[in-house]
Amino acid sequence: MEEMSPENANVDPRPAFAITAVLLGLGAPVIQAIIRPLLEAYVPYPMNRFVSLWPFWIATAFAIFVSVKIENIPLSTFGIGKNTRSLRYRLIELIAALITGLVITIVLVLFSNAVRDALGASSPTLFDPDSIPPAWILILAWITAFFCEEFLFRSYPIERLGMLTGNRWFGVILTLVTFVLFHIWGWDWIHLATVVLPAAIIVTGIYLWRRSLLFVMIIHAVFDLPLIFLPFLAPYL
User: Fold this and answer.
1) pTM score > 0.85 for this model?
2) For the chain, which residues make up each domain, given as ranges?
3) Which of 14, 16, 72, 185 ranks highest by number of CB atoms within 10 Å?
């Protein structure tokens, strides 16, 4: 059931295309995991790491194409729009997003460490210092994470499934579950329960409140900022 409003009165709903775009987006991490062994076998390093990011960008491009060119849904529906606010307002908003991301990161890291200490659990070793990709790969991975993940796991499925079902909460629950599940490959249950899930809930709540993809992208960018410093941190890992 499509939910119509004056803002999307000219929408030409194509549920099959929309559902395909949602599934492709939510399934991007699975596709990445499936093709990674092939890339490592046949594509030279570090280009195999670069190509492994493509499923996220292809899924993002496909969802945007389906929305804009096939269904005639404006990008503003997904929290992407020209900011008509004053420069002062936009700067304040940018600073607010940066501070929000920093505060959430610090609080969740402290909370996670406290839980580990209480359980007597050690922090998992997730990175091999000798296999950290070049800085340019890490920067692209960082951009992919905050841009594609926020679009594919936040704004697009929440809004599009909301239009299809008339209830945004279906999209909210689905995206939260899938977002946590695809982090299982790289983290232990403590990190999932104390960082990934709380962060996903908080950022989703902020998105539903602000309806701004840029705002939550900045928060996510702050979360993952240490990623681009791995080459410099490698000697200490």
Assistant:
1) yes
2) 6-73+85-236
3) 14
